[in-house]
User: Which sequence fits this backbone?
C-alpha cells in the first residue's frame, strides 16, 4: 500500500537507526522508525529486531504487509507459519554477523582461559602477592568442541586452529566428509568428553532446549570452559551454576539468555563468568551489514525479486 503521496511505507519494529536502512530501501519508500497505528496499517514492509514479538495480533495490525525482515537469523519470536499463510515473506540475514559472533566467542574463550576476571581482581584489590596462585590456561594444544557447525561455528573453527587448537564439531546436519572443513566430526558424547572448551552455535528448537544440562556438564573434563553465543535456551543455567561451584566448569561465557533482558541469576556474580547483553553479533561493521541486508531483502520482495535468504516458503505472490 502507498501513502497519499504515493510512497510505500516500511516500518521499524524495534530500534532501527534510519541511516542504516534508508539507502537500501526502494527509492519511493518512506521509512518510519517510530510507527503509529496508521503507519502500521499502511506498511508493506517491516524491519524487525530480535526482541520484538510478531504474532497474529501484530500481523493483524499490518493488513497490507508483504515482507518482514528479521535482523539476524532467529525467528523464534516470529509466527512464521501465520506469515506464510498470509503470503508474507520472512527475510533473514545470515552471514552479516558471522565474523563478529565468532570473534565474540573467541574473545570470551580467551578471557576465561586466561582468567582475566581473576587477574583483574588480583591487581584491582591489591592482592599482587597472590599472583603465584593463579594458573592460566592455554589455547595452543587444547581441544575445542563446536556444537553447531554452520557459518559461525566454522568461523570459530578457523580462528581456533590459528591458536593451535584441535577442532571437534557436532552437527547432525553435517554427515558427509566434505562437510568437515578442517574439523573432526564427532557425536555429542565424544565432543563433551574430549573438549576443554565447548562453544554453542545452534538454533533453539524443542530438541535443543537445555541440550547442555547436568549430564552434559558432568561429562566434560574438570576445569573446562563453556561459551554460549547461540541461544539462551540451549543451556540450563542452574546446571551451569552447579558445575561452576564444583569446579567442573572453570569459566562460563554468555551472550544470550533464556529471556532477554534476563533476570539476575547467582551465576552472574561468579568471577569465572563473563557476560554480554546479546551484542556479539552487533559490532559496528556487522550492524551495518545486518541492517543493509534486511533493507535489501525488503526492497527485493517489494520489487518482485527473490531475496537472498528466506525463513519461509516463497509466498505465492512472488512466484507469479
Assistant:
Amino acid at each position: 500500500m502507498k501513502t497519499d503521496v504515493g510512497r510505500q511505507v516500511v516500518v521499524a519494529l524495534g530500534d532501527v537507526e534510519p541511516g542504516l536502512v534508508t539507502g537500501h530501501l526502494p527509492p519511493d519508500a518512506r521509512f518510519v522508525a517510530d510507527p503509529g497505528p496508521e503507519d502500521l496499517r499502511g506498511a508493506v514492509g517491516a524491519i524487525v529486531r530480535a526482541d520484538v514479538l510478531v504474532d497474529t495480533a501484530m500481523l493483524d495490525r499490518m493488513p497490507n504487509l508483504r515482507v518482514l525482515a528479521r535482523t539476524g537469523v532467529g525467528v523464534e519470536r516470529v509466527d512464521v507459519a501465520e506469515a506464510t499463510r498470509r503470503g508474507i515473506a520472512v527475510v533473514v540475514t545470515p552471514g552479516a554477523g558471522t565474523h563478529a559472533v565468532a570473534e565474540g566467542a573467541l574473545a570470551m574463550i580467551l578471557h576465561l582461559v586466561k582468567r582475566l576476571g581473576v587477574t583483574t581482581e588480583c591487581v584491582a584489590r591489591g592482592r599482587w602477592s597472590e599472583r603465584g596462585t593463579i594458573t592460566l590456561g592455554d589455547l595452543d594444544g587444547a581441544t575445542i568442541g563446536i556444537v553447531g557447525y554452520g557459518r559461525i561455528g566454522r568461523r570459530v573453527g578457523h580462528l581456533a586452529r590459528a591458536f593451535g587448537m584441535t577442532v571437534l564439531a557436532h552437527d547432525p546436519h553435517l554427515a558427509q566428509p566434505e562437510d568437515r572443513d578442517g574439523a573432526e566430526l564427532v557425536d555429542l558424547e565424544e565432543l563433551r568428553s574430549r573438549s576443554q572448551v565447548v562453544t554453542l552455535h545452534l538454533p533453539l528448537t524443542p530438541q535443543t532446549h537445555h541440550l547442555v544440562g547436568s549430564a552434559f556438564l558432568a561429562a566434560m573434563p574438570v576445569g573446562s570452559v563453556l561459551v554460549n553465543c547461540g541461544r539462551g535456551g540451549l543451556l540450563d543455567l542452574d546446571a551451569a551454576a552447579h558445575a561452576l561451584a564444583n569446579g567442573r566448569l572453570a569459566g562460563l561465557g554468555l551472550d544470550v539468555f533464556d529471556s532477554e533482558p534476563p533476570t539476575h541469576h547467582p551465576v552472574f556474580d561468579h568471577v569465572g563468568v563473563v557476560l554480554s547483553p546479546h551484542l556479539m553479533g552487533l559490532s559496528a561493521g556487522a550492524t551495518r551489514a545486518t541492517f543493509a541486508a534486511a533493507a535489501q531483502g525488503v526492497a527485493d520482495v517489494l520489487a518482485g525479486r527473490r531475496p537472498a535468504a528466506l525463513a519461509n516458503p516463497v509466498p505465492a505472490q512472488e512466484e507469479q
Q: What stands out?
A: The chain has a mean pLDDT of 93. The longest strand covers residues 8-13. The CA atoms of residues 46 and 68 lie 5 Å apart.
